[in-house]
Write a structure and sequence with these properties.
single chain; alpha+beta; OB fold (Dihydrolipoamide Acetyltransferase, E2P); BirA Bifunctional Protein, domain 2; 5-stranded mixed beta barrel; 16 strands; 31% helix; globular; binds 4-amino-1,4-dioxobutan-2-aminium adenosine-5'-monophosphate; binds magnesium ion
Length: 481
């Protein structure tokens, strides 16, 4: 390799050494100072050109976005905020960038504008930092599980299973839907399809994960999942990544312990591994905060917020107790909620979740034992309470500023109970034969959960729109590349 990466050079002590750098121009000041970035770090290296002895036409081509190669001597820098810089002896342009046409200017662009040019936004400091944090979090997830002897199981993307009930699915078919083969009763005949039945993109790897957990004990999946819900929110994507561990012989409490340990571990990992990037994002947020009225500014900065989560126990509270808290909060804070929780059994709206997490407990909250009717069929049923109310051993983890970060449960291991529940919600037994075998042969208590990876990245980067933490967001309006 001819060149050295900038991250390495910035840490180098070898003053006087001849070095070669290849990267892209961020700014060019006074016909003399080039800020070069090569993606290895959010920091630029400054290359100082001897402009009196450099060809003028060559200097004109040093424009924002151009790719170049610089050879020179590493010298101690007199400038603020940088230890070293390069005294250029050789400069060549590898790829021009027409300043009239290149959309990124050497100034701060809005996130909205950058979303419009998502194909170029990697080239900004903010997105460099965000995707470095995403990268470190993904590595930390794998390291956490590998170190604890969990098996990384790759579950299918195309599946015939549609039993999660998590949302609308994207259908996958090779049939010509403008002229599909029909059954005798006039419906589309998916038996004629390549897969011989109707298939979709997976909404979750859980059910396949359960099969593996009943052999390996502890497994996890970590891959893309798809929901065709048309929800244009800052927390939903049509394609998102999910981390789904599944553990044999784990009960709900073990499940909660593992989820809390995982989240703290990966956040702490990012704090250390990406200290530069998180510092950059923290300062970016502090800048943003300045434009807000004092009362709306957050008490903690990004780093303090992350450290707080790592250092404090999550609050654990049942759905039933949470509803009581929400009801009590009503009389003295009129119009606190658009949707009042009057009835036990209603699903919590995001405003309720925010109240619990941000106003009441002021920390991450694990909500457990939800009403059976609002949760998936596979969750383990509790004994009915004194007034006959039915709950399941579910757990959702709610985070400040994010809402639901994790959804999980202990699973119903009893075949009879599971079959009854499936019949009640209308899931045909014959379609789930493969899944039911886990309960027919050596059934055992087991549990698992799913972490929305982008929501985790949102929290750690302090960003507020989920479209800004996945390289190529798939939302109802976004699918160009
Ligand atoms: O709560 P969900 O739907 O749970 C499951 O899919 C279970 N099978 C998980 C399991 O037990 N193995 O989704 C889990 C998490 C949510 O808590 C949320 O963080 C995230 O996935 N999520 C989304 N993230 C982005 N966009 C969407 N449309 C999401 N839907 C869910
Ligand atoms: Mg959920």
């Amino acid at each position: 390799m001819e060149h050295t990466r900038i991250k390495q050079l910035l840490q180098s002590e070898e003053i006087g050494k001849e070095v070669i750098v290849k990267g892209w121009v961020r700014t060019f000041r006074n016909n003399q100072f080039i800020a070069i970035n090569d993606g290895s770090t959010i920091h630029n290296i400054q290359a100082v050109v001897d402009f009196e002895n450099t060809d003028e036409t060559l200097l004109k081509r040093v424009t924002t976005g151009a790719a170049l190669r610089v050879k020179g001597t590493l010298v101690a820098s007199l400038g603020k905020g940088q230890r070293v810089e390069i005294k250029v002896t050789e400069l060549s342009i590898l790829g021009d960038s027409d300043p009239e046409k290149f959309p990124l200017q050497p100034k701060k662009h809005s996130l909205e504008f950058l979303r419009e040019i998502a194909h170029l936004r990697f080239r900004t400091g903010t997105f460099n930092a965000i995707f470095k944090v995403r990268n470190a979090l993904a590595f930390a997830v794998n390291k956490f599980f590998y170190d604890r002897d969990f098996v990384y199981m790759h579950t299918p993307i195309i599946t015939g299973s549609d039993a999660e009930g998590a949302g609308e699915m994207f259908r996958v078919t090779t049939l010509d839907l403008s002229n599909p083969p029909k059954t005798e009763t006039g419906e589309i005949d998916f038996k004629e399809d390549f897969f011989g039945k109707s298939t979709n993109l997976t909404v979750s790897g859980q059910l396949e994960g359960e099969l593996a957990a009943m052999a390996f004990g502890n497994i996890y999946t970590f891959g893309p999942t798809f929901r065709a819900e048309n929800s244009n929110t800052t927390r939903h994507l049509a394609e998102f990544w999910m981390i789904e561990p599944e553990m044999a012989f784990y009960e709900l409490e073990d499940n909660m312990d593992l989820a809390e340990e995982l989240l703290k571990y990966v956040i702490n990992y990012a704090l250390t591994a990406c200290s530069d990037e998180i510092e950059f994002l923290r300062n970016r947020l502090l800048e943003e905060e300045k434009s807000k009225p004092q009362a709306e500014r957050s008490e903690l900065d990004l780093v303090e917020k992350l450290q707080f989560v790592v250092q404090n126990e999550f609050e654990r509270v049942t759905y039933t107790d949470a509803v009581e808290i929400l009801k009590r909060s009503k009389p003295n804070q009129k119009k606190q909620f658009k949707y009042l929780i009057e009835e036990w059994g209603a699903d919590l709206q995001s405003e309720h979740e925010r109240y619990l997490v941000e106003k009441h407990f002021k920390k991450p909250v694990i909500l457990t034992d939800y009403p059976r009717e609002i949760k998936s069929f596979y969750m383990k049923q509790n004994e009915p309470d004194a007034s006959g109310r039915q709950t399941v051993r579910a757990m959702d983890i709610l985070f400040p500023g994010i809402g639901e970060m994790v959804g999980g449960s202990q699973r119903e291991e009893n075949l009879e109970k599971l079959l009854t529940r499936m019949a009640e919600v209308g899931i045909p037994e014959e379609e789930m034969d493969w899944f039911l075998d886990t309960r027919r042969f050596g059934s055992a208590p087991h549990s698992g959960f799913g972490v929305g990876f982008e929501r985790l990245v949102l929290f750690v980067t302090g960003m507020t729109n989920i479209r800004d933490v996945i390289p190529f967001p798939r939302t109802p309006k976004n699918a160009e590349f």
